[in-house]
Write a structure and sequence with these properties.
Elements (H helix, E strand, L loop, with lengths): L1 H10 L7 E8 L3 H6 L9 H7 L1 E7 L7 H10 L3 H4 L5 E4 L4 E4 L8 E2 L15 H8 L6 E5 L2 H8 L5 E5 L6 E4 L7 H8 L4 H4 L4 E2 L22 E2 L6 H5 L3 H17 L9 E8 L13 H24 L5 E7 L18 E2 L1 H16 L5 E5 L2 E4 L1 H6 L4 H12 L5 E6 H5 L22 E5 L4 E2 L13 E2 L9 E5 L5 E8 L3 H9 L19
Parallel strand pairs: 1-11, 1-12, 2-21, 6-7, 6-11, 13-18
Antiparallel strand pairs: 2-20, 3-4, 5-8, 7-8, 9-10, 12-20, 14-15, 15-17, 16-17, 18-19
Helix pairs in contact: 4-7, 11-12, 13-15
Length: 522
Amino acid sequence: MLTISSVQAQIESPETPKLVISITVDQLRGDYLNFFQSNFSEKGFRRLLSEGLVYQNLVFDFPQVNDASALATIFTGANPFYSGIGSNLKYIREKGLTGSIFADDSYLGNYTQEKLSPLALRVSTIGDELKNASQGKSDVYSFAPNANQALITAGRSANGAFWVEDYSGKWATSTYYKDFHWIVDQINRSDTSYSRRISNLVWKPLLPLANYKSFPYTSNIYSYQHTFGTSKDSYLLLKESPFVNDDVTNTALALIDKAALGKRVFPDFVSLTFYAGNYSKSLDKAYSIELQDTYCRLDRDIARLLEGIDRTVGLKNTLVFLTSTGYYLAEEPYNDPNSQPITFYPNRCESLLNMYLMAIYGREQWVEGFFNNQIYLNRKLIESKNINLKEIQQKAAEFVVQFTGVQDVATYYQLLFGEENSSMSGYRNLLNRETSGDIFIELQPGIKVVNEKEIVTSATKDYRVRNTSVVSPVIFFGFDIKPQKVGRAINACEIAPTVSHILRIRSPNASSANVLNELIRY
């Protein structure tokens, strides 16, 4: 009996955490955590890096990573092919326009005019599975600068998903979620809300200028003072500043405290999205003083978050995991007068392709549009003319691949059935039957893309092509996790099943990756 009791004691697994805090930092770079370390406090990034389980690099199985596709992969454990989320925007064939992938006229906005819902997510998230396991008794909330970030990290079954509204600065949500917690509403109405303080906000360096010496390429060492004014772009600028991270931290801590999260039988889940990208009004963009200050201030926000959680719930009862979105939007390259980059014109490509297809199939509008390096053919017309879709896609691809600046192409059919070139295989993980185009184009790095349409969005404006993936750390902290540094790269799809394993719930329904070895014992 003593032997049996001893064995049972040895194999007994620990309890589940009372609270899970997910921190995803949009555009966080692992190398910057090293470069800026001298400006960090002892209780923020340094604490996570020294006391947490640190995986030094996160990788994604598809190209053109952005915040939406990265977050969806992290929280569902599945690539965009399954989750349905490959971008923030989608091309609407019948209108020839782009719109939010989460647009949904069935639901109104709360503190916003936008009509959105998370129903574009085709599979479950970690929060959805926790809700299901607890029969709805676990609370799940998300806070983020932008709507798509909040909707993805909350999932379909959450109590609430909140984001900073673009034109009012208040915390907004969709009526899809039934719980607009009173503490969030109180913050919106209070004098401390950034929506009431923005005209008086001034962003200045937190530390003396001499401390911001991480980049030898910073050409303008200046003591900036950024104000945000009261124009329609004021809150968009605010969301590129450290103030948005401060707002996310304050609101999350208030909710955790007032809603008594982490103090009931079933675990609760709060996901936070922070921003660590460029400030569009800075002089040097990627090498700016502002970027270094953003990391410095974010470090203090993370320290406050950890201290607040320790006071209310206890870090030993809380699982914290921090991730990056795995990409970084750098500034436009230096305009060397002796450099003449190759230029690619999407609109000309679209027009010339249509003329080519007219010569083969007749004088009709065969090409509907060009969006996100994808060409959309007129499928209704193709069907009405009894033209084989695979055939016309192939002819279009053979024509487009000859354009200057085009590295490679693949058709929707080739990607769907695995007939593409090996260099294009990653694009299969981006396929979406409802929103994908017919021709996928890979452009050569370094070329300049010029959009000649009169009206352009941020998704179509002129830019230079470059690979945007960066070294992205993943850190697990709290809940008695032992400090360790792991040098191997891990796949983004491995995070959701690992967190689910620690919570003792099923992995999201499209997740097929393994649990990270270092965390199997939890």
